Amino acid sequence: MSILVDGDTKVIVQGITGRDGSFHARSMLAYGTKVVGGVTPGKGGQRLDELPVFDGVGEAVKATGATATVIFVPAAFASAAIREAADSDLSLIVCITEGIPLMEAARNYRYAKDRGKVLVGPNCPGLITPGHCKIGIMPGQIHAAGRVGVISRSGTLTYEIVHALTAAGIGQSTCIGIGGDPITGLSFVEVLEMFERDPGTDAVVLIGEIGGEAEEEAAEYVRKSLSKRVVAFIAGRTAPAEKKMGHAGAIISGSRGTAESKIKAFREAGVTVVDRPDQVPEALRG
Amino acid sequence: MKLMEYQSRQLLSEFGIPIPEAEVCDTGDEAAAIQSRLGGMVVIKAQVLSGGRGKAGGVRIARTPEEARTVASRILGLEIGGQKVRRLLVSRAVKSVKEYYLSVSVDRNSRGLELVFSDKGGITIEEAAADHPGRIRHLSLDPFGGPEAASFLAGIDAGAIGEDIARRVLGIASSLFRLCSERGCVLAEINPLSLEEGGTLVALDAKLVLDDNAVPMHPELASFRNPEEYGSDENEAREASLSYVGLDGNIGCMVNGAGLSMATMDLIKHYGASPANFLDIGGSSNPEKVVKAFSILTRNPGVKAILVNIFGGITRCDDVANGIVKARSMIEIKVPTVIRLIGTNDGKAREILAGAGIEAYSDLGEAIRRVVAFAGGVSA
User: Fold this and answer.
1) Catalytic residue check, B101
2) Which of A23, B47, B118, B327 gets the most CB atoms within 10 Å of its CB?
3) Is the separation of the CB atoms in B136 and B128 below 8 Å?
4) Is B302 helix (H, G, I), strand (E, B) or coil?
């Protein structure tokens, strides 16, 4: 069991003929993901290896029966790609693209929500249900199937922790990167709700960072409604205020969004907060 | 990307929002000439990015050309928020009957747009926020349509300021929304929005923050960038598509990914030293970026040791290894460098590095303890 994606998920790739899109379409296929086709406007009728390429999402979904899409379209066109996907019959939209302006992100969020679609990202590594389905850019081989859910705002830091979990013999149900931007389609709370409902998930690792209040909201949700064990790691204890730390969303504004505030909120909610990524496996066992 | 007041005024005016007549200058003589042209009382304002200009003596009144010259020269000598004042705005003084606060911004918590209005604007806005939170109205806006009349009028309590004025505030709010939409602005704030004696509304001061991500889509916005918003290393890093923030520690860091970069800094601190910087070399890192990153790190005299930490995903470890070897041949790296590589093509990377006599760790904790020891920290 898992959340959002499993072995039956059929995926199309928007931007499949581009450099990143084609590379990751092949890498997802090699992992075993059911990639069924792709979209690049103006390139309908072509093929990427065996995969059919379509001009539009609606057409691609109709021909392939896809249920999810992953977007590798440059930032200037990514919002149009998200809205085109939201207008189709797909249920899951994963946007990897970094650099979408916030005004557009607010609109994309509303547009997808109004149409009942799940939007993951933007500016995220995607999600993976190990052994079954990888939608995104994470290295598949560091994951192992198991019963711990992982949620994160970052890419490589998640790999670091997942690698430590796998090395310690702890497999994952689903690992999901919600994205490093200030506005993302899914929030920590929404993903925690999914893990709470998933019988295949026993515990959750939450990887947060400075900026915003998503971790504080997650802590509140854990305190009130989550029955499963949570271990958290928060990056950015040494980050200065008012400076964007790489991610558009990783910024301490005044006294808000600090690592201390997030760590405190989690500890008060009974969550184990570790100081180092390599302590996560032990904390899950303990 | 923060704008200075004179730049913000330019955008407000482009979107039809009334602003008082004013001109920009950078000498006392010019300020005197502008005062003569405008006539009567003028306000001379320092153009800097930080707030608190008034308290720092950066906003003063002048009534004659002589006074304008003296006042302007005095402001030009000031340093406000660590920034030397180089430019002034000389503006016709406006008699306010009432001062309001109005802003439109992107709100991360609601994942939408927020409008804030208060009938207690001006410098008292922060007091109002503390003492009369009810006088500050927060409205969420439709990100596609902007402010809608009925809910706007109800939301700002139009009755309290008068329906007619409220409708004019709505007009300005709609213009701010359009500005945010069309120029990718994440904060557009007018404070004070002044009600003049004749009943006209004028934006007396404005603060705009543009979205860095909107600039590639609106190239004309690039000219608004103020280099003083960042340090010179930060600007140089941005040109090379690196994300860099200078700190005052002793270990230079080069990492791929923002979250891992922050975690690496935190671990350095955890093991007893302190990070000299945040540096994310980003995704598909070509060797040139690595060379650039080394040249920025090695320039910092505070750096006693360097840590390279790469978890290969999109980033290929062999690309980074090639960059490290290349950097060593181009730049004199005088401080010890510890390298940790794992993930995509790490075997190949280790071969490349071994060929150049460089050792690489795969365990992060081990690498950090090593670099901390090199920098003279407590952990060996």
Assistant:
1) yes
2) B118
3) yes
4) coil
The strand pairing partners of A224, in sequence order, are none
Residue type, B159: G
Q: Which CATH number fits domain A10-120: 3.40.50.1820, 3.30.465.10, 3.40.1010.10, 3.40.50.720?
A: 3.40.50.720
What's the confidence (pLDDT) of residue B379?
45
Total length of chain A: 286
The CATH architecture of the domain made up of A139-285 is 3-Layer(aba) Sandwich (3.40)
The residues spanned by each domain of chain A are: 10-120, 139-285
Q: Give the C-alpha separation, B218 to A212, whole Å.
A: 27
Decide if A110 and B112 are in contact by the 8 Å CB cutoff: yes
Q: How many CA atoms lie within 13 A of B237 on its CB side?
A: 25
Q: Do B257 and A107 touch (CB under 8 A)?
A: no
User: Do the Cβ atoms of B235 and B38 come closer than 8 Å?
Assistant: no
Residue A30 near chain B (CB below 8 Å): no
Q: Are the CB atoms for A92 and A4 separated by under 8 Å?
A: yes
Residue type, A266: F
Residue B355: both structure tokens together: 């060929």
**Measured distance CA(A130)–CA(A170) in Å, rounded:** 12
Q: How much is the ipTM here?
A: 0.94
* Chain segment A135-151, per-residue pLDDT in tens: 999 999 999 999 999 99
**Beta-strand runs (E) in chain A:** 10-14, 34-39, 47-48, 51-54, 68-71, 92-95, 118-120, 126-129, 133-136, 145-152, 172-177, 203-209, 229-235, 272-273
CA nearest to B256, candidates A209, A155, A20: A155
Flag residues of chain A having pLDDT under 70.
none
Q: Domain segments of chain B: what residues?
A: 21-92, 96-224, 231-374
Residue B238's H or E segment, with its range, is: helix B232-239
B chain contacts of residue A259, beta-carbon cutoff 8 Å: 266
SS3 B89: strand
Residue B340: its H or E element:
strand B337-343
Greatest alpha-carbon pair distance for chain A in Å reads: 56
Cβ pair B36, B24 in contact under 8 A: no
The amino acid that residue B226 corresponds to is: N
Angstrom distance (rounded) from CA A260 to CA A220: 16
Is the CB of B311 less than 8 angstroms away from the CB of A209? no
Q: Rounded to a whole number, what is the distance in Å from the CA of A65 to chain B's nearest CA? A: 29
Inter-chain Cβ pairs, chain A and chain B, closer than 8 A:
166
CATH topology of domain B231-374: Rossmann fold (3.40.50)
Reference A126, options A41, A199, A201, A33; nearest CA is A33
* Cα–Cα separations (whole angstroms), residue B192 to A113, B98, B100, B117, B118: 36, 9, 5, 11, 10
> What is the pLDDT at residue B234?
86
Q: What is the pLDDT of residues A75-110, one digit of tens each?
A: 999 999 999 999 999 999 999 999 999 999 999 999
B21-92 classified as CATH 3.40.50.1820: no
Return the closest-CA partner of residue B253 out of B239, B231, B237, B240.
Answer: B237
**Second CATH level (architecture) for the domain B96-224:** 2-Layer Sandwich (3.30)
